[in-house]
């Protein structure tokens, strides 16, 4: 699963990748640097600590992404 979140501070959207089949959990941040995680739980924790829905042009996309990541844990 991939989610693109457009931020007013960057022309390139933030990207969240959660691929359980291949064990890939990654984030591309607003400044195009990235983070790699070992699990969807680590990915969600980083998002919870570092991002808020108000940082993005469409807060509903942020909420949708979190709901989908939560569903992956089950």
Features:
alpha+beta, four-stranded antiparallel β-sheet, 74 residues, 35% helix
Short description:
With 74 residues, the chain is α+β, with helices and mostly antiparallel strands. It contains 2 helices and 4 strands, in the order E-E-E-E-H-H.
Explain the overall architecture.
- By secondary structure, this protein is of the alpha+beta class.
- The protein has one domain.
- The protein has two helices and four strands.
- A four-stranded antiparallel beta sheet has the order 1-2-3-4.
- A hairpin with a 5-residue loop joins strand 3 and strand 4 (34-37).
- The longest helix has 15 residues, at 59-73.
- The radius of gyration is 11 Å and the shape is globular.
- The two termini are 15 Å apart.
Reconstruct the topology from this structure.
Layout: E1 2-5, E2 14-19, E3 24-28, E4 34-37, H1 40-50, H2 59-73
Antiparallel strand pairs: 1-2, 2-3, 3-4
Largest sheet: 4 strands, antiparallel
H/E element sequence? EEEEHH
How much strand? 25-35%
Global morphology: globular
């Amino acid at each position: 699963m991939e989610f693109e979140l457009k931020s007013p501070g960057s022309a390139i959207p933030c990207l969240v990748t959660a691929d359980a089949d291949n064990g890939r959990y990654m984030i591309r941040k607003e400044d195009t640097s990235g983070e790699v995680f070992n699990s969807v739980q680590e990915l969600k924790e980083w998002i919870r600590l570092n991002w808020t829905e108000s940082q993005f042009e469409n807060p509903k996309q942020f909420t949708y992404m979190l709901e989908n990541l939560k569903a992956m844990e089950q």
